[in-house]
Q: What sequence folds into this?
């Protein structure tokens, strides 16, 4: 009997998990401060580890601090390729309660519901909490890239700015040996499929009144560090014509970047969201500025063209340089998985919308390994995310978890001819 309708997620349980998880790093009025491997993140991980064990998963933490919960089949081989789901528990600074959190809690609820259904699943199912998806240390999607040996040389020793911890420091702090990071690597053949549930982080589903987004692909992302050098000096005694003010030069770059992105049309967005001025003292002329640029486009050619324009702007500014942190994304989701999600929606009478993701996710790592991948979005109220006001409807969260459970099982059954 393979009646997927027997799988029934429980909204109340999922809601409680989401509200309990939101307590870790919650700062009144400033949202969630649970950046990767911070004390709040470590405490949240410990809490979630217990929830996974309570759900009957075998839990371990790999060399990259990814948390992996595995539900082995009750009969048959337990070492076969798995169908996995996962997302992240770390947040951006002053982030929302549901970015990443929804995916891991919906994944936990889906696995609980599958187990409770009594359906005979003959392949292992996994729930993975990936380390540092948001890139608060450096490039982001660290855990999923470590899982497939996609780390860049030296990236664990890099940070996003003077005085900020590196991943190596934070991994050492939690007792990991970064020399052994390669032990986190897994073969793509260990995975039959990967699925991620996530909040849309945009306004489309909410404006359409549609509870489910079936993601077709994830945009190309480029992240760059721009450094501008000037000359520190006394703010009172240095005449204006003798100054080399790094902040004034950086301001020119920011304005030119904004114009370059806007003039390239609606298919690209660009953001300078991180900015450090040194020494950053009221009576010293700024000697150095570090800023991080984030470019995204559905078209790689558009992103490359704008990146090259910005590279020239930086070059002609004088004593300024731009380095690429990482380029990623530009992946398509698996048609078979999109179809399976669609079938689940139709069977449950849930309306859906196919769409692209402007946000990056760990789900963009798996297609690079030819692992069939799918993403399920649920609406964000007012389309808001990466801010304290990020909010959802818990019934939408339950629908997302239900579609995930149904799809994971239909994928498992599909493989069992
Ligand atoms: O930046 C992003 O797109 C994601 O929220 N990490
Ligand atoms: Mn995010
Ligand atoms: Mn996210």
A:
């Amino acid at each position: 009997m393979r009646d997927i309708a027997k799988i029934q997620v429980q909204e109340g349980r999922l809601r409680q998990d989401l509200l309990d998880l939101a307590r870790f790093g919650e700062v009144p009025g400033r949202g969630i401060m649970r950046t990767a491997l911070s004390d709040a993140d470590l405490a949240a991980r410990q809490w979630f580890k217990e929830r996974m064990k309570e759900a009957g998963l075998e839990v371990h933490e790999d060399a990259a601090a990814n948390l992996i919960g595995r539900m082995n089949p009750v009969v048959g081989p337990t070492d076969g390729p798995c169908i996995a789901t996962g997302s992240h528990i770390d947040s951006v600074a002053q982030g929302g309660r549901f970015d990443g959190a929804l995916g891991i809690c919906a994944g936990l609820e889906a696995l609980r519901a599958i187990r409770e259904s009594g359906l005979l699943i003959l392949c292992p199912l996994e729930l993975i909490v990936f380390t540092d998806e948001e890139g608060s240390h450096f490039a982001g999607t660290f855990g999923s890239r470590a899982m497939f040996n996609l780390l860049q040389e030296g990236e664990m020793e890099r940070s996003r700015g003077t005085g900020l911890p590196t991943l190596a420091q934070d991994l050492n702090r939690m007792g990991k040996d970064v020399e052994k990071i390669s032990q986190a690597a897994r073969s793509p053949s260990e995975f039959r499929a990967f699925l991620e549930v996530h909040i849309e982080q945009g306004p489309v589903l909410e404006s359409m009144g549609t509870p489910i987004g079936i993601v077709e692909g994830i945009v190309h992302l480029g992240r760059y560090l721009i450094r501008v050098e000037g000359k520190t000096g006394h703010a009172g005694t240095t005449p204006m014509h003798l100054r080399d003010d790094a902040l004034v030069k950086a301001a020119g770059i920011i304005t030119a970047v904004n114009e370059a992105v806007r003039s390239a049309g609606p298919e690209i967005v660009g953001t300078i969201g991180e900015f450090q001025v040194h020494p950053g003292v009221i009576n010293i002329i700024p000697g150095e500025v570090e800023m991080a640029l984030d470019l995204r486009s559905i078209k790689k050619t558009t992103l490359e063209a704008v990146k090259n324009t910005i590279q020239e702007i930086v070059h002609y500014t004088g004593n300024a340089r731009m380095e690429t942190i990482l380029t990623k994304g530009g992946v398509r989701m698996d048609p078979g998985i999109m179809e399976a999600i669609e079938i689940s929606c139709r069977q449950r009478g849930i309306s859906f919308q196919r769409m692209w993701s402007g946000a990056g996710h760990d789900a963009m790592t798996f297609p690079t390994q030819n692992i069939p991948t799918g993403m399920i979005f649920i609406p964000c109220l007012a389309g808001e995310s990466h801010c304290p006001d990020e909010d959802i409807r818990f019934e939408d969260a339950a629908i997302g978890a239900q579609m995930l459970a149904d799809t994971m099982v239909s994928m498992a059954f599909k493989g069992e001819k």
The first strand starts at residue 26 and ends at 27.
